[in-house]
Design brief:
Layout lengths: L1 H20 L6 H29 L3 E4 L3 E7 L5 E4 L2 E4 L5 E7 L3 E3 L13 E2 L5 E12 L4 H7 L4 H18 L4 H7 L1 H17 L3 E12 L2 H145 L2 H11 L6 E2 L25 E2 L5
Antiparallel strand pairs: 1-4, 2-3, 2-5, 6-8, 7-8, 8-9, 10-11
Length: 415
């Protein structure tokens, strides 16, 4: 760029020199003014050209996430590696190239269908399609070398030719049946190994190869489906027969095992009975003396219980006799006490009656007073007949006749 600016300035200077040396008459003052204004004009032109270059070709370039940038100096040939961020890129001086650091996937569409533009060929010469995915990435340790070696479109110029060369060669070695079912894993392993070795020389790291569906022609697919159905039916029948044979053997083994188990159980039961009988016999040797002693102990306990009951009965009889004697003696004492009480009461009553008789004989009006006292709670007034001079209650006594009793009138007043 600097050289270009120098060339432009020299051209302008030469143009003005030719104009000055031409046949036209030029004022010396104007010529001197033009020569004085020429350097600033050239500087302005240079600045304008530089600004235009900066606007049209920015010196800063961004490095996207997941990519690496390799900047190469066009004059010295030196390289610098940059990861995610920004870098200075001067047009005409630096060349920047981006390399992916993440895994990339490549799916060849040309070989995906049996009726596609570039179908695969099996060993029988049958066209078929293969859904294939190749995962790859660039060796990040060799970016400086790969920037000069690899083309711009790595996938179209490196990956695709390598995949086609390897896939066509590997598929042509196998039959459709092997590709479709029996050896699919082995084919994928062989493809991955050969393709990894082929791409490693170009600085490409192969991460894996996955084989998806296999596209077959319709007629062959129908025949293959029928053949597979027959094969599956044959395999199913073979497995069914094997299972039936194994079930028969299993039944035989189970019967033999059951026989052995029952024999073993019978022998074990017999041995258990023998051991139990021997144990019972040994136990009886110790149990019989113990039971004999238990019988003797129970007899002694019965005798002791009988003697205790006899003694208890005798004690109860003696106690009863003592109680009866005590009760009889108590009753006798009660009878004597009652007779004594009656005697004393009679004596007291007789003495009292004698005293009262003597008192009544001496004072006859006491009878009337006593009778009045007895009747005082029911009778308030007693009227005796005038001039009777006798006992006012003689009419009430049984020894006096009714016609001789003085008529008496009483006015009882009840409470």
């Amino acid at each position: 760029m600097l050289q270009r600016l120098k060339t432009l300035a020299a051209s302008i200077r030469n143009a003005f020199g030719r104009a000055a040396n031409s046949g036209f008459d030029v004022d010396p003052d104007a010529a001197r003014s033009l020569r004085r204004a020429l350097p600033p004009l050239l500087m302005l032109t240079a600045v304008t050209a530089a600004g235009y270059a900066v606007v049209t070709h920015p010196p800063m370039q961004a490095v996207p996430h997941g990519q690496a940038a390799l900047r190469t100096n066009q004059f010295s040939g030196g390289t610098s590696e940059f990861r995610e961020g920004s870098l200075l890129r001067l047009p005409g001086l630096h060349e920047v190239r981006l390399f992916p650091l993440r895994d990339q996937s490549y799916r060849p569409a040309a070989i995906a269908k049996a009726g596609g533009p570039s179908p695969l060929q099996s060993v029988e010469g049958l066209s078929l399609g293969l859904d294939m995915t190749v995962r790859w990435t660039v060796d990040a340790t060799r970016l400086a070398e790969l920037s000069r070696k690899l083309p711009d479109d790595i996938e179209a110029d490196v990956i695709a030719p390598a995949v086609q060369a390897v896939v066509y060669k590997q598929i042509a070695r196998h039959t459709v049946r092997e590709i479709f079912s029996s050896q699919r894993a082995e084919i994928a392993t062989a493809l991955e190994a050969e393709l990894r070795a082929r791409l490693a020389s170009d600085g490409i790291l192969l991460k894996g190869v996955q084989i998806g569906s296999v596209d077959l022609p319709p007629d062959y697919r129908q025949g293959m489906d029928s053949l597979l159905a027959d094969s599956l039916a044959s395999e199913r029948m073979r497995y069914t027969l094997e299972i039936a044979d194994k079930k028969v053997k299993q039944t035989e083994f189970e019967a033999a095992a059951d026989k052995v188990r029952r024999e073993t159980a019978a022998e074990a039961a017999g041995r258990e009975q023998i051991i139990a009988a021997k144990a019972q016999e040994e136990a009886m040797k110790h149990v019989l003396p113990f039971k004999q002693k238990l019988i003797e102990q129970r007899a002694l306990e019965a005798q002791a219980d009988s003697a205790a009951r006899v003694q208890q009965a005798e004690g109860a009889a003696k106690a009863r006799r003592i109680e009866i004697a005590a009760e009889s003696e108590a009753r006798q004492k009660l009878a004597d006490a009652e007779a004594y009480r009656i005697t004393q009461t009679g004596k007291a009553n007789a003495g009292q009656m004698a005293t009262e008789g003597a008192l009544l004989t001496k004072h006859p009006l006491l009878v009337q007073k006593a009778m009045a006292d007895k009747l005082s709670d029911k009778v308030q007034v007693i009227i005796a007949p005038p001039g009777s001079g006798g006992f006012i209650g003689s009419a009430l006594l049984a020894g006096v006749s009714a016609d001789k009793a003085a008529p008496a009138a009483a006015n009882p007043e009840q409470e």
